[in-house]
């Protein structure tokens, strides 16, 4: 266990809790988390996950703006569902990103877990984009990624990080339920029964 793993644990748990609560401060806390995990993953040979932290950084900046000004007339973005074509495009993006990253890891690195590293990276990238748009379906991709991340980090000996992703998994399930409830309440308030 290193200081970067501990710092990643603390900032990661706080970030996801803030996301569950739909709190805008998840983005600056997330940026700190991405820096800690970038350093950790480079040291563990999880190169795709390290690269993912760089992309997360950019997506966090986009999400921060989007949550504040991405709604109608540049207002705050509300929790909502993607359209079916948007969701299918996201799933197609997961497949394309997975294939590209796996190819790159096999060809250019000494990764021993290229396929698993690639699929978790692909799921996480698309989930982070979906989160930036405040789409409820982001939680399903995070759940799928966490179910793979937990044993992957355990195999790499990153026990604290594996435990953190166990916590993330639980928080994702809570987040899914809370965001669905928030959406239902918002719709009920917009369309009261007559």
Automatic annotation (TrEMBL):
Entry's Gene Ontology molecular function annotations: nicotinamide riboside transmembrane transporter activity
- Name the principal localization, coarsely classed: membrane
Indicate the transmembrane segments per the record: 36-64, 84-101, 135-152, 158-177
The domain of life is Bacteria
Tell me the membrane topology, using the record's own terms. Multi-pass membrane protein
Q: Name one Pfam family in it.
A: NMN_transporter
Tell me which UniProt keywords the record has, alphabetically: Cell membrane, Membrane, Transmembrane, Transmembrane helix, Transport
In which compartments does the protein localize?
Cell membrane
Q: One GO CC term of this entry?
A: plasma membrane
What role is this protein assigned?
Answer: Required for nicotinamide riboside transport across the inner membrane.
Family from the record: Belongs to the nicotinamide ribonucleoside (NR) uptake permease (TC 4.B.1) family.
Classification via NCBIfam families: NMN_trans_PnuC (TIGR01528)
Query: What is the protein's name according to its record?
Result: Nicotinamide riboside transporter PnuC
